[in-house]
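Lecture 7, part B: from sequences to assemblies.

Below are the input chains for today's worked example.
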Amino acid sequence: MALRGSLLVGQSGGPTAVINASLAGVIEEARKHSEIGEVYGAVRGVEGLLEEEMVNLGAEGEEAISLLPNTPSAALGSCRRKLTDGDYARLLAVLKAHDVRYLCYIGGNDSADTTHRIGRFAAEAGWEMRVVGIPKTVDNDLGYTDHCPGYGSVARFNAMAARDAGLDTLALHTVDTVKIIETMGRNSGWITAATALARQEPGDAPHLIYLPERPFDVDRFLGDVKGEVEKGRGCVVAVCEGLKDAEGNVLVSFKYAVGTDSFGHKQLGGVGDHLVSLIAERLGIKARFDKAGTIQRVFGLAQSEVDVAEAKMVGAAAVARACEGVSDQMITLERVSQSPYRCETGLAALAEVANAERPVPDEFISEEGNDVTAAFLEYARPLIGGPLPGYARLRMKRVPKLVGS
Amino acid sequence: MALRGSLLVGQSGGPTAVINASLAGVIEEARKHSEIGEVYGAVRGVEGLLEEEMVNLGAEGEEAISLLPNTPSAALGSCRRKLTDGDYARLLAVLKAHDVRYLCYIGGNDSADTTHRIGRFAAEAGWEMRVVGIPKTVDNDLGYTDHCPGYGSVARFNAMAARDAGLDTLALHTVDTVKIIETMGRNSGWITAATALARQEPGDAPHLIYLPERPFDVDRFLGDVKGEVEKGRGCVVAVCEGLKDAEGNVLVSFKYAVGTDSFGHKQLGGVGDHLVSLIAERLGIKARFDKAGTIQRVFGLAQSEVDVAEAKMVGAAAVARACEGVSDQMITLERVSQSPYRCETGLAALAEVANAERPVPDEFISEEGNDVTAAFLEYARPLIGGPLPGYARLRMKRVPKLVGS
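Predicted structure of the full complex, as C-alpha cells:
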C-alpha cells in the first residue's frame, strides 16, 4: 500500500548553478504521485527546519517553477548545520506535525550524513518516513556516483574563464607575464582540473595545473613557471585554493578566520596572492591572480545543459524511488555510454556516501603532477555540455622585414 | 586626391571582450576603400612595431574575420609601451618602409597620447600619414566620449556576477555573512558602479558600493556593513581595486610589485582580502571575497551586444574618417537618443583625450558615498545590451507553525 503524506525538500551546503534544477525535478515529480499530499520546502535546510521554517511549494506559480532550473544558487536557502544529539527529537516533532513521510535532501557528503541520521532517528522512533539524498556539489567529491550535479557547470565556467583569461595573458604577456587562476576545491582538485578543458590547440592556456592531490613543492613550481615563461608567450597557471604541502598542511589559510563552520572546515584563502608574491620575490617576474570565488559556482550564464538536465533528473528520481519504497539511499549518476554520452540514475546507501571524499584519481593526474591526463579530459568533457564557443584564430602571416635593426 | 598607401592597425593596453570587434570593423571598412592597399596589423602595438613585427591582415580567411567580433582579448597582441624620444625615428622608418599612410590605433588614454605623438613626428618629418585613435577601455575613463567600447561588456559581466554571487550570499548568509566583490578600476569607479545593474528588486545585492572617487573611510565602511548585516539576509559589497584613503593613497598596493609599467602605474592588489580581514577582526563577522580579475574584462560569454556593435562601428568609422582626410583625432561615441538608445560616432582631438581621465561624476554617486544614483543606472543600463536573464523568484509562502519552540 502506498505511503500517504507530505513531502519535504531541503537544500544544503554551498550553492551551485543547478541545485534549483534538482528542486524543480522534485516538485514536478511529486505532482505525479497521488500519495504525496503537500510539497513543502525547508528554509535553509535543517537550520530553518529546527525553527519550523517551511514554505508551501504548492503555492508557487508555473512561471517560477519553469524558471527554477536556470536560476542559480539555492532558492530555499542553504546552511552548513551539523545536527547535535539534542536536535533530532525537535526535528522529528516538526516532521510529524506536518505529516512528512517523504524527505528529499539535496547536498554533498555532510548532507548525506545528516539525511541518514534523521532517517535512522525517525525509524527508531517508529515514524515511517522515506529519506532520499540528492547529490549536489561543485567539488565533485562524492563517491558511488560518476560525478555530482553542480560540477559540470563550475567546470564549464572555469574552462571558459581559463580560455579567456589565457587569451588575455597571451596578448599582454610582456607586461603581465604570469597569471594564476585560483579555483575552488577544498580537498580535491576536480574544479581546478576542469580548466584544462579550455585548451583547443597545443600551447593553449592553462600551461600548468596543480591539484591538492599532490603535495605542492614551491621550488618545483617556480622551476615549472620559469620554464613556461621562457617559451615567450606568458604562463597561465591553474591552482586549487586547497593546495597542501608535503606535510599535508594547507599552503595558505585565512589570517583572521572567524572560527570554523560546524563541520570543522577552516576558512581557506590566499593561494593566488601567495604565489604571485613568490613569483615576484624569487623569480622577479610580474604575475597577477584571478580568483572568481563564489562567482564560479553560481554563474548562471555558464550553466552546462547536461548538468541542468541531470540535476533535474536526480531530483525527480529521488521522489520516484521514494514512492517505490526506497529509503536511506542517495541517487547516483551512472555513465552507461561515453559516445554518445548518457547517464542513468542509480542508488547508493547514504551511510556509505556520508563523510567519504573522492579525490581525483591517479590516472587523471600527469606524472609530473603539474597537469591532467587525456583520461581526465575524456571523463570531464561531456559534463560541460557541448563545446565552448568558437573563437577566431588569426593566421598572423608575418610581413617581411625591410628595415635593418 | 585620395591618399594612396597601406593601413596599419594596432591594439594597445588592457585587453577587452570587444577590442577584436574594433579590429574587424577596421578590416572590413578598409576593404571598401580602393585607396587603401595592404592592411597590416602591428604585433603587440608599438612594441612589436619597433621590431618591425607586422602581419598581413589581407591574408586572413573570411571565417576568422567573421569570428573576430565575438573573440575576446587582443588578437594582434597588446602592450603598455611608452615611447621614448629615440623611438620615433625608428617607428617612422618602419612605417615609411611599408608605405603606411593610415594608422589606426585602438586603446585608452595612454594610447591616444602615443598615437598623437607618432602623428606629430611623422608630420614634422614630412611623411603624410593620417592617424586616428579608436577608443577602448574597460575603465570607461576617457573624456570626450559618452562611454568607451569594452565597458558595456565588463559592466554586463559584473552585473551578472553581482546578481549570482548575491543569490549565493542570500542562500548561505548564516555561514558566509558578508561578500566582497572586488572589481577592476585603477582610478575610476565605473566598473564597480556597474554591479548596481544586478538589482531587480529592493533589497537585492549589491547592498553597498564604494568607488575610488570618494575617500574610503574604514570606520564608516564597517558601520555600513554592520547595518546591512543586521537586516538578516547577508551583505554584498562591491569595491574597486583602486580605493583610496583621505590622503589619496591607495588602500592596498601589492607587496612584492615588480616595478611599475612604463607609464608609471603601480600594481594594485588585495583590497578584497584586506576588507575581509578587517570585517573579521573588527566586527567578528565571517566574510569572503570574489575577485574575478582579468576574467571580468575578457569573458566572452558576457559580451554586451551593444558593446560589440559599437566597437565595430568605431573601428569602421576610424577608417572612413581617415579616408575623408581626418587625422590626429579619436573617434568618440555620442548618445543621440536615450529611448530607444542610440549612439553615433563623433571626433575629439587626440591631444585632448591623451592622458586625461574622466572619473565617475558626482551626480552618479549617492550622497552617502556608498552607492550609485538612479541617474547612473539610466546612463549605464543601455550599454550592457539587453536585460539580464530572467530568474525565478519563489513566493516562499510560509507554512503555519504547529510545534511550540
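Note for the exam: The radius of gyration of chain A is 23 Å. Keep this in mind when comparing with the next example.
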